[in-house]
Amino acid sequence: MINETLNRLTGEMRSFNSLIIMNITGAGLAVAMGMAFVVRNVHPMVAARTIIWPEAAMVALVVAGGVLLFRWFLTGVEMMDEYQDVREKSSGHENGAEESATELIVKNMAFYRDHRESMNGLILGSLVTGAFFLLSATSQVRYLFSVLGSGTPFEVAFILVGFSLCLVLGVAGVYISYMFRRYEATWDRRLQESREAEKRLGELLEGSS
């Protein structure tokens, strides 16, 4: 029973860790693409020494969005660093001790409660990142078939690696967001039960005083 609980909890922890990684990946990629867009559109303005519309407005919007995404990237990095402490506690649970399971549940519940407001954003971020990679994989299909018919072995290998990577990351992003949505309901229920238990304990302590 204890081993089953630990295995289920370990799966939930892997899912949450993957969710954070997918958000860091998506935010980092978006920031990099935004920087490339800004450089590409600002360079002609610098060369011409004039503001070009509507490119200037688009650059301003991309910069504003990039700042928000960079903050989200940093948030993901901070969350991952904080969650590492929780994950390291799971490395010594081969003995299946009940205390280990209880400690893990308490630590995960505390972490989830502290970051509850960010959960929907993490799920959405993983879904959007997955959708982006799936669209990228889809856009490569036509080129993939043309390369398979007339490309060199190096070109075929290169496009296959890129297509496979985008496909795997896309499926992973969508699947992780779906799985964690299920885990989110479980942790919400645990938090509710914890609050009710704390309330009952408080009432008992008040009654005995």
List keywords for this structure.
0% strand, 6 helices, mainly alpha, 209 residues, flat, single chain
- Which outline best applies? flat
Based on DSSP secondary structure assignment, what is the total number of beta strands?
0
Beta-strand percentage range = under 5%
Poorly predicted regions are none
Q: What's the story with the biggest beta sheet?
A: none
Q: Mean pLDDT, as a whole number?
A: 82
What does this structure look like?
The structure is a single chain. By secondary structure, the chain is mainly alpha-helical. The chain has one domain (2-208). It contains 6 helices and no strands. The chain has helices at residues 2-48, 55-88, 98-114, 119-139, 141-150, 153-208. Helix 1 (2-48) packs parallel to helix 3. The two termini are 37 Å apart. The model has no long low-confidence stretch (mean pLDDT 82).
Give a short summary of the structure.
This protein is mainly alpha-helical. It has helices spanning 2-48, 55-88, 98-114, 119-139, 141-150, 153-208. α1 packs across α6 (153-208), α4 packs antiparallel against α6 and α5 (141-150) runs antiparallel to α6 (153-208).
Write the layout of secondary structure elements.
Layout: H1 2-48, H2 55-88, H3 98-114, H4 119-139, H5 141-150, H6 153-208
